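Customer escalation, tier 2.

The customer says the design service returned an amino acid string that "doesn't look like it belongs to this structure." They asked us to rerun it and document both sides in this ticket. The original structure tokens are below, unchanged.
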């Protein structure tokens, strides 16, 4: 019998013995039902969110276009509501979606936060995490793999069959890899139907132009989980081969599970926050406001900065009064004020985002010690529910806000006379046709290439974990104690 045939035979034995247990059948059925349920619930919630955001977005657009004739700067302060959409794979792993805002009000001179997160609108139970397919695969399935794999080799030693296997010509390498393969096949019985269901659900998402990218990211996502399961099977086999008893093996594997899912993630989070602290919202807003005050107030004609700006314009155009300028001076000042305030905010926001990214780097370093952190990051990234996807939306919303404010300022500069006394003057009103010409907000998701670039290190971590464990298991296979 060839080595390959021996490994397949040993794997079939593990699969047969495990599936023959009534408790295993119940657990497999329960896990499949649980995964199917959370996938369906997640998908229905996703489609409901899609319908709501598009309906509300259409209503906001209609109100914007139907606004009466008015001064363009009033329209800039009238503002615009934009809604954060979710990527089609968000039903698989909720990630950070429930803790991040969904609506942001865009207006001139002010950057508002994204509000109305599901966590703020729900009860305190959400702090324990939502049950998604990603959470089940990351936390519950590993526990089942360890439960079925703790006695892969130690049981043979206890029952005295290990010596018989070796005397029949089975090598340690064949034994270990046969057991690993069998346990891996058992783990596949937990996810086969749910994976196919997740693939089918993508066909029913309303955002059809994203279907190609969604399929590609889904395939990579499932591939990552298969590597994760194989890593867990290798750990179970390795611990079982070195443990003196099945009881000791089970205790060790439970300790590994607690270390991977609870201890290391929490420690990494605490260390990241301690080494790279971030200011509170009040501290952040105060710092921005203090710098804006030093720069000057564009609404105050006597402000030193803008008084100097006025003098330079009068000298440049050779006139004595702002009313003699060939453009609307007030609009020019508003445009300059918007530019300065936006640049100030973006500088402070960049520093804040850099701190958050540094915290994430600490967790990324911890993933070299914990495959759970690696698969969690990969799962959120390819599901489109990580911080990078949210940051992309935030940046696009701010760019749209700036475009809106400066477009209204340009209209004021070009179309409104300097001799208009105030914004309520009928001569200061512009036709609502100009509001209709301003484009609607259409955010884009990160492309598959961008997502892959963000997750390349995570994939590398998982592959290295698998490769190193495979080498280590092969090494241990030659040192298995028969007694």
């Amino acid at each position: 019998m060839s080595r390959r045939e021996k490994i397949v035979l040993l794997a079939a034995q593990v699969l047969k013995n495990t599936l023959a247990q009534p408790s295993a059948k119940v657990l497999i059925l329960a896990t499949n039902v649980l995964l199917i349920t959370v996938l369906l619930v997640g998908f229905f919630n996703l489609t409901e969110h899609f319908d709501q955001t598009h309906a509300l977005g259409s209503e906001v657009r209609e109100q914007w276009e139907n606004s009466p004739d008015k001064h363009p700067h009033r329209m800039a302060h009238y503002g615009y509501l934009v809604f954060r959409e979710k990527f089609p794979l968000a039903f698989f792993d909720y990630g950070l979606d429930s803790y991040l805002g969904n609506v942001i009000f865009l207006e001139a001179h002010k950057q508002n936060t994204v509000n109305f997160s599901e966590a703020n609108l729900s009860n305190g139970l959400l702090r324990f995490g939502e049950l998604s397919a990603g959470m089940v695969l990351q936390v519950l399935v590993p526990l089942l793999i360890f439960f079925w794999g703790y006695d892969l080799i130690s049981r043979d030693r206890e029952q005295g069959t290990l010596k018989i296997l070796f005397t029949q010509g089975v090598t340690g390498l064949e034994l270990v890899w046969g057991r690993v393969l069998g346990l891996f096949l058992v783990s596949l019985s937990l996810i086969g139907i749910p994976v196919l269901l997740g693939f089918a659900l993508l066909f029913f998402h309303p955002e059809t132009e994203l279907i190609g990218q969604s399929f590609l990211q889904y395939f990579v996502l499932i591939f990552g989980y298969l590597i994760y399961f194989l890593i867990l099977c290798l750990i179970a086999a390795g611990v079982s081969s070195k443990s003196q008893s099945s009881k000791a093996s089970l205790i060790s594997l439970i300790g590994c599970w607690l270390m991977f899912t609870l201890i290391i993630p929490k420690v990494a989070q605490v260390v990241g926050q301690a080494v790279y602290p971030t200011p509170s919202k009040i501290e952040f807003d105060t710092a921005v406001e203090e710098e804006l005050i030093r720069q000057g107030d564009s609404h105050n004609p006597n402000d030193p900065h803008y008084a100097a700006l006025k003098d330079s314009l009068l000298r440049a155009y050779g006139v004595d009064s702002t009313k003699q300028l060939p453009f609307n001076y007030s609009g020019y000042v508003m445009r300059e004020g918007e530019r300065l305030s936006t640049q100030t905010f973006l500088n402070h926001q960049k520093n804040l985002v850099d701190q958050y990214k540094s915290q994430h780097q600490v967790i990324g370093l911890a993933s070299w010690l914990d495959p759970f952190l690696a698969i969690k990051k990969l799962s959120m990234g390819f599901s489109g529910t990580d911080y990078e996807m949210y940051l992309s939306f935030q940046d696009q919303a701010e760019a749209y806000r700036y475009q809106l404010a400066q477009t209204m300022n340009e209209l004021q500069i070009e179309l409104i006379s300097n001799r208009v006394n105030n914004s309520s003057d009928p001569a200061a009103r512009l036709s609502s046709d100009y509001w209709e010409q301003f484009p609607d907000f259409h955010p884009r998701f990160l492309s598959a290439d961008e997502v892959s670039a963000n997750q390349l290190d995570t994939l590398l971590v998982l592959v290295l974990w698998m490769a190193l464990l495979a080498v280590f298991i092969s090494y241990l296979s030659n040192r298995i104690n028969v007694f």
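Tier 2 assessment: The sequence is consistent with the input. The radius of gyration is 30 Å. DSSP finds 18 helices and three strands in the chain. Sent an explanation to the customer and offered a walkthrough call.
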